[in-house]
Amino acid sequence: MQVSTKFTIAIHILAAAVYFRKEYKVTSDFLAGSIGCNPVIVRNLMKQLKEAGLISVRRGPGGIEVTRPLEQITFYDVYEAVETSKDKLFNFHDSPNPLCPVGRNIHQALDGKLQEIQEQFEEELRRHNLAEVVGDLENAIRKDS
After folding, report:
1. Which of 51, 75, 86, 130 has CA atoms 20 to 30 A from the CA of 123?
2. How far from 144 is each of 23, 31, 82, 97, 140, CA to CA, in Å?
3. Sequence-separated contacts (24+) of 43-49 with Cβ below 8 Å
4. Where are the beta strands (DSSP E) in the chain?
């Protein structure tokens, strides 16, 4: 399984909400313009981010706000909030042939390694946070200006 675009779009939503919070009302339509996608996709992801406690949404003149300090929002938090099929990073083919010596033993030879890779991946996600992204964005925008 690959991590879907929902993860990077959610990071984009959070980073844009922080970056634009003082200048604009940050809405799904506004964010969709920045992301380059349909506002419905943004609204669905905002719902998931809200349910995870990463944003609050105020109707009317409000827009969205990030609810925690940026250093406390890890990539893993975002991944957990928006990725729906994350139980296993690697999906195994369904029916290895039990009459074949490789088919009969492939799980034993591979499962532990794949589990270890998934654990390392999730640990890496925990090492990075939204503050890093926003800091890098601000530096890139300054250089771009």
Report:
1. 51
2. 19, 20, 31, 56, 6
3. 45/6, 45/9, 45/10, 45/13, 45/82, 46/13, 48/10, 48/81, 48/82, 49/10, 49/13, 49/14, 49/78, 49/81, 49/82
4. 55-58, 63-66
- How many beta carbons lie within 10 A of that of residue 116, not counting itself? 10
pLDDT tens by residue, 12-65 = 999 999 999 889 889 999 999 999 999 999 999 999 999 999 999 987 767 899
* Structure-token pair, residue 24: 């604009």
Contact 68, 97 (CB under 8 A): no
Q: Side chain identity at 133, as an amino acid letter?
A: V
Beta carbons of 6 and 86 less than 8 angstroms apart:
no
Angle between helices 5-20 and 39-51 (to 10 degrees): 80
